[in-house]
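just leaving the lab so this will be short. what follows is a protein written twice so to speak, once as letters and once as C-alpha cells for the fold. can you read through it and tell me how you think this chain folds. thanks a lot i owe you, the record is right below.

___
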Amino acid sequence: MSGVMGHQDVDIDLGQLVRAVWARRLKVVAITVLGAGVAFTGAKMMAPKYRSETRILIEPRAPAFATAQANDAGASPLLDELNIASQVQLLQSADLIKQVINSQKLYALPEFDAAANGSALNDILIALHLKKSPLESPPEERVIDAFTERLQVYQVPGSRVIGITFTSKDPKLAATIPNAMAAAYLVKQSGAKLDSNSEATRWLEPEIETLRRKVSEAEQKVAEYRAEHGLLPTNTGTNFPTQQLNDISAELTRVRGERANAEARARSVRDSLSSGEPSDTLQDIMSSQSIQRLKGTESALQSQISDLQTSLLNNHPRLKSLRAQLADIKTQIRQETQRILSSIENEAKVAALRQAELEQQSDKVKASSAQAGEDEVGLNALEREAVAQRQLLETYLSRYREAASRADKNSSPADARVVSNAIQPVDPYFPKVVPIVTVVALATFILTSIAIMLAELFSGRALRPVGVSTAAEEELVEKDESVPSEPRRSAATPSMLALTVEDEEHADEVADVLSEEPPVDDNEFSVASVAEYLIGSRAPLAIAISPTGDRGSAATVSLARKLADAGSRVVLVDMTGSGCPTDLMAQDRDALGITDLLCGEAAFGDTIHGDRLSDAHLIPQGVSDTRRAMRGASRLSLLLDALASAYDIVLVECGAADVAGVSRLTQSKDVEIILSMPDIVEDEFVAAMTAFEAAGYSRVVLMSGDDPADDMISRQAA
C-alpha cells in the first residue's frame, strides 16, 4: 500500500483515484466511444417496434327505458376494485385472444410464428437444450404465446379505466389489435347479459305457472275456511261477530247517553214544578209550541187587564171575564208542563228498556266474537300463506317482464365503453437510439472509471497512511541530507545475488558511446529519460544493477519514484547487500521483506510496503538471514511473475550483481537491464554491458546524470 507500513491505518486517497482516471483519460474516452458506437450500431440494427393503446371505462349501463335498472345502478358491484381486476383478467382470457386471432387472421403472419422467426442463436440454444424448440408446440399455441407477449392489459391507477396496449412491428397492426380486443370484449359482455336475460325468462316461465297454481289453491283454502267458520269479511277488515259487537257497543253507549239525558231533563222539570219556580227558563218547556202559544195568550190577557184597570172598576164584568180567561190559561200551562214532564219520563223509560235489551245482545255477541277470534287464527295463517305466494308471483312476473323486455341485443349494452381508440403510431417506441447510446456511453464511462479506481485500490496506490510522525520526517530528511551532493563513488557492497563482473568484451564499442557525455539537462541516460523509456516500452520487469554501489541504488529509488509520479504502478524489490533502497524508502528499517518471504517467515502481503515520499511500493531487504534466504532463490522468478501481474513495472535493485546472479531471477532474456551509474566509471560500465550482452540480454540501458540526493531533498522540501 502506498505509504503504508505493517498494520498502519490508512485512508483512501481520492486525489490519486482522480489522477489515475485522468492519466488514462484517452483509454477511458476510447472505451466510452467504442461502447457508444456499439450501442448505436446495435440500436440501428434492431427492428423497430410500434405500440398503440385503447382505453375502456368500466361503468354500469342500461337502456333509457329501464328506469328500475337505472335506479339500481348505484348499487352495482362494477365499481369494486376486485371487479375491475376481474375484467382485466377477462381481457387476457384465452377465448377472447383466440377470437381476435381468428378475426384478424394473425396465424398467417410470420411475426406470430416463432418457428418462422428462427435465428442462429436460437438454433444453438435449442441444440444445447437450453431452449425449447418452438416446433414442439402446436401452431395455435405458438400464435397465442406470441400474441400474449405483445399484449399488455392493465388498470389505470386510481380509476375504473382499463388500458389495452399491443406491440408489433407493423404500426397498422399495433393500432388494429387493441381496437379489435375492445370490440370483442364489449360484444362478449353484452352477449353475457343477453344470455343471462334469456336464462332468466326460461327459468321464470315454469316457476310463474307453478306459483299461479299455488296462489289459487291458497286463496281457495281461505274462502272455504271463512265459509266453514262463518268468518264473513266486512268493510273494516274484521269478521262479522267482531263488527256486530262493535256496533252494539256503540249503540249501547248512545242509548245510555239518551237515558241519562232524559232522566236529567225530567228531574229538572219536576223540581221546577214542585218548587213553584217559573218554568220559562227550562229548555224543554220553552221549546214546546203549545207552551209558547199559551204564554202568548197569557201575555195578551195581562196587557188587556192592565189597560182596562185604568178605566174600569175591579168588579167590572169585562175585567172579571179577562181574569177568568187568564186563570184558565195558567191552568192550561201547568197541564201542558205536566204533559211535557210525562213525555220526558217516558223517553227515559224507553231508553232504559233499550239499554237493557242492548246489554243482553252484547253478552251474546261477545261469546260469538270470542269463538270467531279463535277461528280467525287459522284464517290468518291461511291468508299469510296466500299473500306470500301472491307477492312472490308478482315479483316473478315483474322480473319476467324486465327480462323479456331486454331479450333484444340492442337492449342490453355492455357495462363498459371505449373512451380512447388506438391510432396508428408514427414513431417507434423501441429502440430509442439517443437514450440507448447516452445510457450505454455513460455506463461504459462509469464502469471504466470504476475499474481503474478498483485497480488503484487493489494495488494500494490509492491508499495513504493516516499520519506520519514528525520524528520520522526529520529522520528522513537527515537520511536524504546524508547523501553527498557531489558525485562520488561509494564502495560496492556485494549483492544478495553475489554479482561479479568478469566479461570485458565489446569495451571499445561502449567507450565510444560514453566518449561524449551530454549536458545534464539533455542527458538521454538521466533518470527521467529512463523512466520515460520504461513507460513507453511497457516492460513488466526491469533489473537494476549498481556496479558503483549505493549511489546507483539511490538512483534506482529515484527512478521508482519518477515512475510512480508518472502514474505507473511500480514496486521496487531490494536485493542489495547494503539495503540502501530500504533505508531510503521504508518507514521502518526492520520491516519484513524479501529475505523473510524467501525464508517463509512472512506472508506475501506483509512484505509489500509503501514509499515514504511517493506512491511507489517497496519490498525491503528484510531481517532474516541472507544466506538462508538465498537457498530459496528458485522461488524468486515465481514471486516476480506474481508481482508483474499486479503492477505495471516491477523494478529489482540488485546492487553490484553479475550476470549469473541476474539469471537466478528470471530465465527470460527479454527483460530490461538498467546499469545505474550516477558516477560513470568507464571501465566498470564497459565490463558490465559487455557481460550482459554476451549473456543474451539485448535490452541494456545506462542510467546516469541525475543526482538522486537532490531529487529526494526537493521532494521533502515540497
Summary: The chain has a mean pLDDT of 77. The first strand starts at residue 10 and ends at 12. The longest helix spans residues 317-405. The CA atoms of residues 485 and 709 lie 7 Å apart.
